[in-house]
Amino acid sequence: MNYYTYLAFVIAFLWGISPVLVKYILSKNIPPYIIILTQASVYFLSSILYILVYERDDIYGDIQKNSKYIPFLIVISFFSVYVANVLYIFALDNKANVNIMSLIVSLAPVITLIASFLIFQEILPIKVLIGFFIIFIGLLFIFLPF
């Protein structure tokens, strides 16, 4: 396994533990807006730090060169980060089962697969398709009454 494989496992671990930690914080009667504000602040400050450390060359030139995409990026950011997090925290705060919530949110890779196939006509290897069907069958076992 290479460096990026290990990195992917770390990311999976962090994403996997996040719902449990958020649910724990909510159980301590911390208002959801505090969590959202804290997350947004950390995202923003971390992004600024990343840019200053790794992307110092020509920040303003890059922004000017790509300025036509900024409105699109704002819309994407609003829905994929802000709205998604608000809805997620709202569901956890309203007694959603953290296990089921995590499984549903874990559909993101499946949605990415479908979208990349439909939008970019990416070819899906057989292993990926098999994984897709295994995930789909797993979800059926969770949601269908037996």
Task: Please give a structural write-up.
- The chain is mainly α and 146 residues long.
- It folds into 2 domains: 3-96, no CATH class; 107-146, no CATH class.
- 81% of the residues lie in helices and 0% in strands.
- It has helices at 3-27, 32-54, 59-65, 70-93, 98-105, 108-120, 126-143.
- Helix 2 runs antiparallel to helix 4.
- The longest helix has 25 residues, at 3-27.
Please give the structural blueprint.
Blueprint (H helix, E strand, L loop, with lengths): L2 H25 L4 H23 L4 H7 L4 H24 L4 H8 L2 H13 L5 H18 L3
Helix pairs in contact: 2-4
Structural key phrases:
146 residues, single chain, 2 domains, 81% helix, 7 helices, mainly alpha
Strand content: under 5%
Order of helix and strand elements from N to C terminus: HHHHHHH
Sum up the overall morphology in one term. Answer: globular
Query: What Rg, in angstroms, do the CA atoms define?
Result: 19 Å
Low-pLDDT residue spans: none
Number of domains: 2
Structural class: mainly alpha
- Report helical residue fraction: over 70%
Mean pLDDT equals 85
Could you describe the largest sheet, including whether it forms a barrel?
Answer: none
Number of helices: 7
Question: What is the CA-CA span between the terminal residues?
Answer: 39 Å
Tally of strands: 0
